[in-house]
Design goal:
The chain is α+β, with helices and mostly antiparallel strands and 132 residues long. It contains 4 helices and 4 strands, in the order αβαβββαα. The strands form 2 sheets. Strands 1-4 form a two-stranded antiparallel sheet. A two-stranded antiparallel ribbon has the order 2-3. The N terminus is likely disordered. The structure holds iron/sulfur cluster and FE3-S4 cluster.
Length: 132
C-alpha cells in the first residue's frame, strides 16, 4: 500500500494529470490509407455521426467525436487512429481532418466503395491525391 501511495504521489498521478492537461478531449483521425479507398464501414458504427465525406476520403469532425474507439476496428485498411497514437508521418492529418470537416457534408450510412478501392488499398503514399 505504501508503494502505491508513493507511486501516485511521485509519478502516476502526475502522469494522469499531465495527459488530461495535454489533451483533455481526444479525437480520432482518418489518415492517408483512406484516400481512394473510402470503404465507409466506419460510418455505420459511429454513435454521433461525426464522419464527413469528401470526394475520395472521409474525415472525422473533432468537435463531434466522443472518443469511443468503435470505428477503428471497422476500417479494412487501418486508416483511423486516436489522435495521440498517430504515426509520426501521419500527424498532419489531425489538422486536415479538422479543416475539411468544416465544409464537407456528413455521411451517416455506408455506401459502395470505389470500384478500384482494393487496388488503392495497396498504395501507401497517396496523400497528394486528396481531392478537396
Ligand atoms: Fe465516431 Fe467513436 Fe470513431 Fe469518434 S471514435 S469517429 S465517435 S466511432
Ligand atoms: Fe476510410 Fe476506412 Fe472509413 S477506408 S471511409 S476510414 S472504413
Amino acid at each position: 500500500m505504501f508503494l502505491l501511495d508513493f507511486w501516485l504521489l511521485c509519478g502516476g498521478r502526475v502522469t494522469v494529470r499531465e495527459r488530461s492537461r495535454r489533451n483533455p478531449r481526444m479525437t480520432y483521425v482518418v489518415t492517408e490509407s483512406c484516400i481512394k479507398c473510402k470503404y465507409t464501414d466506419c460510418v455505420d458504427v459511429c454513435p454521433v455521426d461525426c464522419f464527413r465525406e469528401g470526394p475520395n476520403m472521409l474525415v472525422i469532425d473533432p468537435d463531434e467525436c466522443i472518443d469511443c474507439t468503435l470505428c477503428v476496428a471497422e476500417c479494412p485498411v487501418e486508416a483511423i487512429f486516436a489522435e495521440d497514437d498517430l504515426p509520426k508521418e501521419q500527424r498532419d492529418f489531425t489538422a486536415l481532418n479538422a479543416e475539411l470537416a468544416k465544409t464537407w457534408p456528413p455521411i451517416t450510412e455506408k455506401v459502395d466503395a470505389p470500384a478500384d478501392a482494393d487496388e488503392w488499398a495497396k498504395v501507401k503514399e497517396k496523400r497528394h491525391l486528396v481531392e478537396k
